[in-house]
């Protein structure tokens, strides 16, 4: 089963959470983020550059340089972040609000019950992700034990 969120999007979320935790403390070095979040540094550079193009991350070069949130964590929702990285919250292209495409090998959209279901999933997902901000506390959940898996 392929993940709904790409590895790139998951890395971006973790990097942004790290920067949110350090908000207001000045630049955070790439090496710190990469080590703390277990993200390959080269890939992290690409992700942070992409996020800076969208105006949510700023950077400064040099010895005392690094990255920081260009926007307060209270003004960034997880929905916003995932849309920046994925382009959409929809699981299928025909249910996307901003990147709508007709599905190949499908019935007419007006007749497709799968599309109707995916529109509902998209809307409920958006409702949840748009209500949680980068500034909100999210506590880790313990990993399942072998017996629970």
UniProtKB/TrEMBL annotation:
Domain of life: Bacteria
Entry keywords, A to Z: DNA-binding
PROSITE patterns given in the database record: HTH_RRF2_1, HTH_RRF2_2
InterPro entries reported in the protein's UniProt record: TR_Rrf2-type_CS (IPR030489), Tscrpt_reg_Rrf2 (IPR000944), WH-like_DNA-bd_sf (IPR036388), WH_DNA-bd_sf (IPR036390)
Coiled coil feature spans: none
Keyword Phosphoprotein: no
Keyword set includes DNA-binding: yes
Name of this protein: Rrf2 family transcriptional regulator
Organism: Tsuneonella deserti
Lineage: Bacteria, Pseudomonadati, Pseudomonadota, Alphaproteobacteria, Sphingomonadales
């Amino acid at each position: 089963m392929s993940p709904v969120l790409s590895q790139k999007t998951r890395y971006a979320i973790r990097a942004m959470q790290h920067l949110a935790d350090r908000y207001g403390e000045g630049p955070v070095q790439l090496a710190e983020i990469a080590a703390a979040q277990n993200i390959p540094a080269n890939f992290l550079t690409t992700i942070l550059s992409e996020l800076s193009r969208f105006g949510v991350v700023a950077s400064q070069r040099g010895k005392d340089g690094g990255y920081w949130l260009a926007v307060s964590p209270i003004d960034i929702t997880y929905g916003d972040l995932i849309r920046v990285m994925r382009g959409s919250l929809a699981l299928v292209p025909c249910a996307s609000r901003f990147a709508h495409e007709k599905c190949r090998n499908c019935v007419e959209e007006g007749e497709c019950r799968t599309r109707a279901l995916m529109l509902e999933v998209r809307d409920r997902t958006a409702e949840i992700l748009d209500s949680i901000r980068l500034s909100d506390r999210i506590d880790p959940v313990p990993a399942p034990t072998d017996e629970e898996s």
